[in-house]
Amino acid sequence: MANYDVTITNGSGSARMKAGTYNVTATAQGYSATSLDPKTFTATASDGSQTFTLLAEGTLELIFNETGASGGTPITSGSVVMTDSTGSIEYGSAVNINSTGVATFANVPFGTSESPITLYFKQLSTDDSHEIESNIISVELSSATETQYVINVLLGEQTFTLSDSTYSGLPINGTLNFNNE
Amino acid sequence: MELIINCANNLVYNPTIQYYVTVQNKCGQVLFATYTTSETVRICCCERSVVVCVRLYQNGNIIQTKSRYVNCARENQISMNFDFLARGVQKEESLQQFLVLDKTYNFPIQRASLLFLTL
Q1: What is the predicted pLDDT for the residue at B10?
Q2: What distances in angstroms separate CA B27 from CA A89, A110, B30, one per listed residue?
Q3: What is the distance of C-alpha B85 from the center of its chain?
Q4: CA distance A16 to chain B (A)
Q5: What does pLDDT average to over chain A?
Q6: Would you identify the CATH topology of the domain A58-151?
Q7: Residues of chain A contacting residue B94, judged by C-beta atoms under 8 Å apart
Q8: ipTM of the predicted structure?
Q9: What is the CATH number of domain B2-89?
Q10: Which residue, of A64, B73, B99, B100, has the fewest CB within 10 Å?
Q11: For residue range B51-95, what is the model confidence (pLDDT) as tens digits?
Q12: What is the pLDDT of residue B12?
């Protein structure tokens, strides 16, 4: 008869355990303890390993607009993905930004106002008339539903003149196509 | 010459167990002696025919002694088995490693604890 309490840091932990089958329960801020999968573990006489998962129940809305605050003109398309703090590791699939500038991340962990959980995001694309947020977006989650605004600056307006090359000043009505190679 | 100290399969290697290895000539004179906690020991064999003795200590007590005649000219690697050590250091626990990930996004959860209760 032996019980073990294993501390998990940055996703990993270990213990020397007697062979046997155990009921496993988890404690982790921001996660539902009942979501632990699997809920039992069998240790053999040999060294071994096991991956557990936990499901969170928070929801985060990232809203991309021209002011980075409520009321700004939203972008109309794009995508964003959860990452580590450096942006080098992506977690899960990219989420599309809808026509009102909103990207919704479901099942995110959340903490409390005293001890929020910080998540990181990287914007992958925006629409044709805005500049992407190039910095990693850091979000502190202290409640089950959170909203954070992200600024996407409106691109500068370029003015063009199209005129007849022979008769200087004669304006031409037409279309110019610009392709970014 | 290299001495490999083999434990039985059901033993866990335990660095707190100390081996005392000696090499003696036919007259019992100690030619080489070393303490080690490694399973592999390089031993000095300066005569053609010697006796290699291994004493196994745990918590300062001798729990095993074995010896073997070795023809140094013919053998450059020898093994000695400690099959009956199971009583003292039988493998009771194994190292279990755990990974805890977010189910949706597959990132490692920063801080958590897992409690294992015997069924």
Answers
A1: 44
A2: 67, 76, 9
A3: 11
A4: 4
A5: 94
A6: Immunoglobulin-like (2.60.40)
A7: 16-17, 19, 43-48
A8: 0.84
A9: 2.60.40
A10: B73
A11: 888 777 665 667 677 787 888 777 777 777 654 343 334 456 788
A12: 47
